[in-house]
């Protein structure tokens, strides 16, 4: 079965009901796919290795593969990893790792939002910040599972040094970066306006790892918001100044290791 067939089969599979909405949102929009590919092409080249940390149901995995990269997709939620394996299981260029990416290898508690698994998280601070916050009304993390954890250093040791790392883990991004001890050419991490201090810690860690230039994309726009890359201090100030209603986005970090 090809990927399109696998996705359509999952949409009608009772066992995949928790991820059906994600499949409908993230797959089947050619214009969105084209915009995503054009955006990530500035970070990813054919033959590259990419780590997708918080892969969910794999729409970014699909983009990285269309760009010719090999992908290690890390995702802790069993319904999501089942979907990833159904969609990409026959693709030798995709490796699925069912785990949380964290500061240390071991076991961690993971909080599941059954109605909205996109925002399931290993961060209890994120859940506290969302409690009662505007735009987050009604969100419930109604289950907790114990899952294995790996570090970015573990993934490098097993798979090689990635050209790009995408991190989207709902307030746990700083813990992910704490598990990386060597520079990579580029990475992104999600930020939210209910968790700006997490982004600040990520910026400090990225700078310690050798990143010197920063930009951001707001929401799901697939476009850099600034025509110029910023210093850490300017990016930190910019994140502080964003209106609360922005809600979320991704910070992009670039090193000098790989001129484009």
From TrEMBL:
Query: GO molecular function: any one?
Result: methyltransferase activity
Q: Does the keyword Methyltransferase apply?
A: yes
Superkingdom of the organism of origin: Bacteria
Which segments constitute the Methyltransferase FkbM domain? 52-183
- Key words of the record: Methyltransferase, Transferase
Q: Name one GO biological process term.
A: methylation
Q: Is Cell inner membrane found in the keyword set?
A: no
Signal peptide stretch: none
Q: Where would one find coiled-coil regions in this protein?
A: none
- Protein name as catalogued: FkbM family methyltransferase
Q: Which species is this UniProt entry from?
A: Micromonospora globbae
Q: What lineage does the source organism belong to? A: Bacteria, Bacillati, Actinomycetota, Actinomycetes, Micromonosporales
């Amino acid at each position: 079965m090809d990927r399109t067939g696998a996705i359509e089969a999952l949409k009608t599979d009772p066992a995949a009901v928790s991820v059906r909405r994600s499949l409908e949102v993230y797959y089947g929009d050619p214009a969105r796919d084209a915009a995503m590919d054009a955006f990530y092409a500035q970070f990813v080249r054919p033959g590259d290795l990419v780590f997708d940390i918080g892969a969910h149901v794999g729409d970014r995995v699909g983009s990285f593969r269309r760009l010719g990269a090999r992908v290690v997709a890390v995702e802790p939620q069993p319904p999501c990893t089942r979907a990833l394996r159904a969609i990409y299981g026959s693709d030798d260029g995709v490796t699925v790792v069912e785990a949380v990416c964290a500061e240390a290898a071991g076991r961690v508690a993971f909080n599941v939002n059954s109605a909205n698994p996109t925002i399931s998280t290993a961060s209890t601070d994120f859940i506290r910040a969302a409690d009662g916050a505007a735009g987050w009304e009604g969100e419930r993390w109604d289950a907790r599972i114990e899952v294995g954890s790996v570090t970015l250093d573990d993934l490098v040791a097993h798979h090689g040094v990635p050209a790009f790392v995408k991190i989207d883990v709902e307030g746990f991004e700083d813990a992910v970066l704490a598990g990386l001890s060597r520079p990579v050419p580029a990475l992104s991490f999600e930020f939210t306006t209910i968790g700006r201090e997490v982004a600040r810690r990520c910026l400090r860690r990225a700078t310690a790892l050798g990143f010197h230039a920063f930009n951001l994309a707001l929401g799901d726009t697939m476009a850099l918001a600034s025509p110029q890359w910023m210093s850490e201090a300017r990016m930190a100030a910019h994140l502080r100044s964003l209106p609360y209603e922005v809600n979320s986005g991704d910070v992009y970090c670039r090193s000098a290791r790989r001129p484009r």
